[in-house]
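Please produce the structure of this protein holding adenosine-5'-diphosphate.
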Amino acid sequence: MKAIVSLNSGSSSIKFALFTLDHEHVPTLSAGGKIERIGLSPCLAIRDAHGTVLHEEDWTDRADMTHADLLEWLFDWALSHLEGREVIAIGHRAVHGGTGFARPCRIDDTVLAALEKLCPLAPLHQPHNLAAIRAIARIAPDLTQVACFDTAFHHDRPAVATRFAIPRALHDQGIRRYGFHGLSYEYIARRLAELDPELAAGKVIAAHLGNGASLCAMADGKSVDTTMGFTALDGLVMGTRCGAIDPGVILHLETQLGMASEEVEHLLYKESGLLGVSGLSSDMRTLSASERPEAEEAVDLFAWRAAREAGGLTASMGGIDGIVFTAGIGENHAGVRSRICKRLEWLGIELDEAANTANAAVISAVGSRAKVMVIPTDEERMIALHTLSVLSGTAP
Ligand code: ADP
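Below is the modeled complex.
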């Protein structure tokens, strides 16, 4: 039997999934997992499709193990557990496809060089994606590798949604709004079309609320606007990222407080968001269980900003027929969904609180003007589907 591997290589983690293909090439998850704490003391858990742990590993005090070392380990583990399956390709999440990559593609030296040039646009993410591609090319030079872009789903948005109000020459150099979380949104668009085709054909806000968080306005399943912009720092309040901020703050930090740009970068990416406002944690569960007023303030700000941005995206679409919540907070945190939807009551949105508390698939009340749903995302499956489409020559 044939199989596809999805890899999502980030700064301190690598997520992976092995999909077995049936005779019609429909992928079924066989195993998946995550290596975390890379650069500190890496640890790994691999589970089967039912969540049963197949293997756990703890590399205590092995801060020296690189992404490449860990991928090599994973490759060896996979080879001895394939049980007759043949891996025909590896699909990678590539955060940035710039303006050039509007669809997934087979990776060769030319593509790799083009992706390398995009590293300055996503310095905290893209180099890790490319390191994984190179590591696999060394370990298995003949294996087909496919790049699947987080920016691609947003590629065809109306031009107005891509522009900052800065001189044209800078836009032409690539300083523009790209949008991210595209693999998640594309998966949600497809799944919604299966679950509720009528809603999928309408105006929907998808809310990917995890450690990273963004909203996407989708009309007829296509992105028309999104809250992330040039980088994954823009838009909503996130676990440790600030979201949209007056650029004057950054100028002030540098010119008046004398902070170096690396310090500002660290502040905005790693010390801000829920963590910065609460002074307690970046984790929504910890914050909502806390009695501290700062924790409450952080959760309230998260919901307020999400609702405010949802209002903006509704204007971008000229209306709203539904909201779909996804990712860690969106799929599991009834309290946050309720706070956001309460602030959107003026749009005719009303929750069925019992359904919301039960994390049901449909959580809006019967009379709600817009439908509200919860759909678990699956970026790894989207990567596998894209990889298959490239192999079969049917990439969109
Ligand atoms: P990442 O962007 O790292 O993939 P996730 O999508 O896993 O992040 O989301 C992490 C966030 O989801 C955390 O704030 C966490 O508190 C929240 N979360 C995860 N599971 C639950 C749950 N069962 N109930 C409430 N919140 C949850």
